[in-house]
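As a warm-up, study this chain.
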Amino acid sequence: MNPNNYALILAGGSGTRFWPLSRNSKPKQLINFHGNGSMLCQAITRLQGIIPNERILILTNALQLEEVRAQACDIPRENIIAEPARRDTAPAVALGIGIIAKRNPKANMIIVPSDSLILNDEAFQSLADEALALASRDEALITIGIKPNWACPSYGYIERGEKHADTSLKYNCSEVLRFCEKPSSELAAQYIEQGNFTWNAGIFIWNVEHVSQQLAIHSPELANFIECIAQSSHLPSFIEEEFPKLTPISIDFALMEKAPRVLNFEANFDWDDVGSWISLGKYLNYDENNNASNSSTSILDASGNIAYSAQGKRIALLGVDDLIVVDTGDSILVAHKDRADDIKKIVDGLPSELC
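Now compare it with the structure written out below.
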């Protein structure tokens, strides 16, 4: 393993899209949906093939800190940091850059979200290893994109240009022409037909010295914050006082869309954002009528439903189609699939103890 390689796992986020199973204190990335560990635990395991635990940092928030510590018990306690306020991805990334640069000014780092499903760890590790090696010798910011398999309007897209000049690279790496915000379904279909777009998976790789130089040009506020981390004598107090003052902005807007040279590796592994109960349904057990469930069900004249019991209760479905039914013991959700994206709206009106 390269001793200059570090990882930053972003593990904040709210618990609305998978309510009632997810809560603010235990959102999607901390839930063990399939019995093989939470997405956070899977992300840590996936990185261990290329980066040891002592060089893995996790950023979360105060509500989720104790659960993250419990699940990431092999990560050094000082490597798990709670953001004192929600400030979007750019301040979070800057905090990670500053901490890593303070430890090792020559570091290369990979940033990964904790709430994505990747089904082939070895393929991820091989590609990430090559991207980190490239970041150490090429003054570019690097992304990993996913080859689209349908015209999804919920993802950002990356338009790819010329292939990288280094013919020794094993994986498909191209110059980035532009970042595209979430498109309409029609525009997404045009992107796919054009053939040179990837989904933006929110995975970034770079050398900390180079990215700090780019931030100094395009986001001086974040660059100054990183410099102050290096000078701080008591990091927890500094973070508590200064982090909430940062302007909320995404890393795409703050840096990636402005940087003069960005590269994009096309992933060779399966990836899924698993952004709703509908997308999770793909990984449950199906019957001949397209009903998906994680536990025992009794079904009569019902089709296209998703049934999930956190406690393994039997769920009976009679004469209903295209519903989401979730039981967690203290709450039950019944929603039509067409309203899956509105679940977060109903959470706004719930008692605080159920959020």
